[in-house]
Structures are given as structure tokens and as C-alpha cells.
Amino acid sequence: MESYFELKKNNTTVKTEVLAGLTSFLATAYIIVVNPSILSQAGMPFSGVLTATVLVSFFSSVMMGLYARNPILVAPGMGLNAFFTFSAVLGMGITWQVALGAVFWSGIIFLLLSLFNVRTLIVKAIPRPLRYAIAAGIGLFITLIGFANAGFLVANPATIIGIGALSPAVLTFLGGLLLMAILITRNVTGAILLGIVLTTLAAYPLGRWWATEVDPVITWQGLVSAPDFSLILQLDLVNSLQFSIFPVIFAFVFTDLFDSLSTFVGLAEAANLTDEHGEPRNVKRSLATDAVATTLAGLVGSSPGTAYIESAVGIEAGGRTGLTAVVGGLLFLPFLFLAPLLSMIPAIATAPALVLVGAFMVRPVVKINWLKMEEAIPAFLAMVLIPFTYSISQGIIWGFLSWAALKVATGKGRSMSPTLWVIVGFCVLALVMQSY
User: Fold this and answer.
1) How far is CA 171 from CA 55, 142, 355, 365, 406, in A?
2) 423 vs 137, 247, 367, 416, 420, CA distance in Å?
3) What pTM did the predictor assign?
């Protein structure tokens, strides 16, 4: 173990790595509940998605530790699960089986891009302001979903959207949101997961005092059960290759690629996990692991897997090697058998997590030069159109198209690389396909 993970070289110990793995797990464990709560809205069984979430998180995190030897956990990504449910399935009207097929093919493409280093061309081609704006837009989208799931925001014929009634359920959500915000502000380990548990306990009496407030009413369903493997190999590989599904695959690849790269770069810079050239350590293997996670997700029944920025808390606790990721990955396994317990958690308990995850994701907007209008306007459009259109892909498409239009209009069209023009072409193609 010492020689494989190079513990002495990284100035760490087995004890430190184990504690760091536990810390990272507590920071990411909320996905075990939140991912099924989102994907179940696409018509998928909660227990099946929970099993898939655990399998993806376990195998991918352990692979990250053993193969890439980085202290980074991998699990189904926030934003990607929202796109899966609300843009692909509910927005475009495709079945969740076809959406799982799109996840699988996006993983294969991502893997090829990583293995053949094509990712370098793509990364250099995408303007940084658009990257930051898309990340922020996805954060706003997730926040909107959280408020809607809690009933805090509702449809209003007069104003399109409005505030819901301050019912006992909504007040419970607001209490959970405040509690979770306080825990996060005070740097409590596992703050999001702890907030979900405490809000669930607070919501339990609602089903008895106000039976219409929580649907379904929270009832004890038992502690453990056998894993639900019903979603394994349920993907539709053939129909997911239809021309009309290409925008979905493209959006999965694009979002997963840049989410992963930004995570690797950010964590490497924060913890000095760099190679002799100053690049993120073992980035090619890390990206390959991320791609395998997405491919595996399609096979077992989940939205794409991605590297988790929450791994930073484990790194801050001293984690420096792949042993941290192996420990964190192993800790997911017991939750294969806790589906009855976790399925009791209502939407008003996971909604605060969605709202606050959005707060984390809007941070990159400070890196955008808002005084350089030919870049600020496309970034702004990409950011706001994601929540306003309820579609991540629409924000991406119009962000790129407006970027190209303004660059050409200001005589700077030649500054755009051929790769970026290819991406713009795909955006135009996506819009054409939507009209048929």
C-alpha cells in the first residue's frame, strides 16, 4: 500500500488517508438521496436509481483511486441529472431508456476524446466566459428545481412564476434551508447530508397533522432490503442513436467534459496535485475514469458520473493519494441495502440541498469580464437561458451562437478556432433538428 500509493512521497499516512476518505464521503453522500429523487421524476423507480447511484459511485471512485491515484470521488453529477430528467425526458419527451442510451454513448465518446487527447483541442476552443456562464446557469437551474420541488415557487398565470402558499410543508423546507445554510457556513462535515436527515425528521409529523401536505405521506418502510437491480441494462442503445437524440448526447459530453476538467484543475491548484509540468496529476487517467463512470451509469441506470468538487473537503483533511478515493468509494457500498430507509426522504428535505448546490455553482461568474460586452452578452444569455428555458442544452446552444455572431459582427471572427466553428455548426444543427 505504501509503495503503490506513494504515501511517504506525498507526505501522508494510512490513517490520514482513511480519515480524508471518510470526510470526502460525508461531503458527497447526499447524492445517494438527491440523485434518485431527481431521476424518479423521469419515471424511474427510486430504489433502482439508488442502487445505480451507489454502484456508479463505488466503482468509479475506487477506479479513480487505484487507476488514476487521485484523492477525488466520482458519482452521478448534479446538473447532469437535472438535464437527464427535465430537459431530455420531460422536455424533449424521450423515454428514460433512450436517455440512458444517450448517457452510454456520451460516455463512449468522452472515453475516445480522453484516450486520443482530442479533449485538448476542445478545451482550448471553448471560450472561458462561456464555461463559467454555463456552470453558473446550471447552478441557477438546479436552484429553480429545488424551489419548485418544495412548492416555494409555483406556476402563476399572471406572472408566469410566483411564490407558493406558506404551508406547513413549505415552512419546513425553509427551516431546512436555513439549517443547512448554517451548517455549511460553520463548515460542519457532512452538512448537506445532515441537513437532509434533520429536515426529514421535521417533515415526518406533517403526514399526520396535515395529510395533504406531503405526497406521499412519510411512513416507515423498513430499514434494509435487497438491492434493486431492475434498471441494469435497461438502456435503449438503438433508438438513442437517432439523429434527434444527438443534441442530448452532445450536451452530456460537453457538460461532463468541462465539469470534470474544471474540477481536476481546481483541486490540483488548491492542493498542489500537479505533475512536473504544472498540469493536474494523472489528468488523462482521471478523465478516462470519468468517462468510464458515465458509460457505466448508462448501463446500470443513472445519469452520467463525474468528479466531485466536494472532494476538496477530504483533500483539506490531508488526503493526497488514491487511497482517499478508495476509502470513500467503499463507504458507498452499505447503502445498496438501505433503499427503504432512504426512500422515505421527501422532496422538501432534498430541495434545500438543490438550492444550495446552486449557490456553489454560480461562483465562476466573478471570472467573467462583464465590461467586455461581446463576451459578457453571450455569457449572460447562456447563464440565464438555462433556467429560463428549463433546458441546459438551449443555454449552451444560444451561448455559442451569440458568441459567434458578436465576434463576426465586431470583426473578430478570425479569432475563433476551427474547432469552435465546428461546435457552432453542431449548435445550428441542433436547432434545425428541433424543428422536425
Assistant:
1) 35, 20, 15, 31, 45
2) 19, 11, 23, 11, 5
3) 0.74
